[in-house]
């Protein structure tokens, strides 16, 4: 990494300094993040139930605003779910423009046909074209994974899905994730006037809870709050204070014997998954520009009676409080008198790990 690299964050947290402001301010780094980080990692794509019936296709966009990759989710007659490129291999029109039942896909521009596995099967006026159709005429397949109500995808994954999701999956194993239902009334998209990484950094530490979230601080035990680091992200574990409902892991499960108010997982780079006694919430964080971020917030409920209680109770208030501090950091990013920060060894391991992962992906020559 060159001396001028804004992400020259020392691997030793005790010596490290936080990234230089250039990382957040320079549009060049924004573009590099999209191509070298987002194109090679996993992202939330859609809700599994949005393509529930067999022989069904739905156009979706992977990471709209950053990757903005047009895909089509297809469930075939045998209930196999696939994510395919939605870009026609002839001259690039969108193959599927609206969700619906289908027996095959047919490009609306010149009629090229594909089966529900994405294979090009026929094309008018192409009888004399040599070697047609060949594999390059098929729609590209994109890596897809389904877990409970969630679908995740990756364009060119640098690692296996389970290396990314496995640690959280172990925590979810005893919870009724398959029963979790998408709740539109508790879901929304919103935009934050800040760099996406600032939004993530704030999420990655519970350090600010006593200062920024006075109500949440009464539900989560700060003394036992901890962060685990994983190869592709980190998991924060907040134990419950008082009598509020809690997740009580059974014998043999990770965290057995504890009362968990919330799990907070950041799946690198930008998927936040929170687990509460009532269900899951997901924040898909999407960089739009160096100063603008879209957050797609989704709720999946398995126990509606527990909504509104404990650490997962007033999420709108917590979000408002977080956005206030994130915008404060954004406002001061370009300050001439802003030094590079240091990390707390007890409270900011997740932030340091996030910066190290960013540096690794951004400097990897394969990108
Ligand atoms: S662009 Fe699809 S058939 Fe021509
Ligand atoms: Fe917060």
CATH level-3 fold name of the largest domain: Naphthalene 1,2-dioxygenase Alpha Subunit, Chain A, domain 1
Instruction: Write out the distinct hetero groups bound to the structure.
Output: FE2/S2 (inorganic) cluster, fe (ii) ion
In CATH terms, the superfamily of the largest domain is Naphthalene 1,2-dioxygenase Alpha Subunit, Chain A, domain 1
| Shape estimate | globular
Low-confidence stretches: none
Largest sheet: 8 strands, antiparallel
Evaluate the radius of gyration: 22 Å
Percentage of residues in helical conformation: 10-25%
Please tell me about this protein's structure:
The chain is of the alpha+beta class and 367 residues long. It has 2 domains: 43-151, Rieske Iron-sulfur Protein (3-layer Sandwich); 178-363, Naphthalene 1,2-dioxygenase Alpha Subunit, Chain A, domain 1 (Alpha-Beta Complex), CATH 3.90.380. 20% of the residues lie in helices and 27% in strands. The chain has 8 helices and 18 strands. It has helices at residues 22-25, 27-37, 161-172, 196-203, 209-212, 214-217, 315-331, 349-363, and strands at 43-47, 56-62, 69-75, 81-85, 100-101, 105-106, 113-114, 120-122, 141-147, 150-154, 181-182, 188-192, 226-230, 233-239, 260-267, 271-276, 279-289, 292-301. The strands form 3 sheets. Strands 11, 12, 13, 14, 15, 16, 17 and 18 form an 8-stranded antiparallel beta sheet that branches. The radius of gyration is 22 Å and the shape is globular. The protein starts with 21 loop residues before the first helix and ends with a helix. The mean pLDDT is 94. Bound molecules: FE2/S2 (inorganic) cluster (FES) and fe (ii) ion. Fe (ii) ion is lined by residues 202, 208, 212-213, 318, 322.
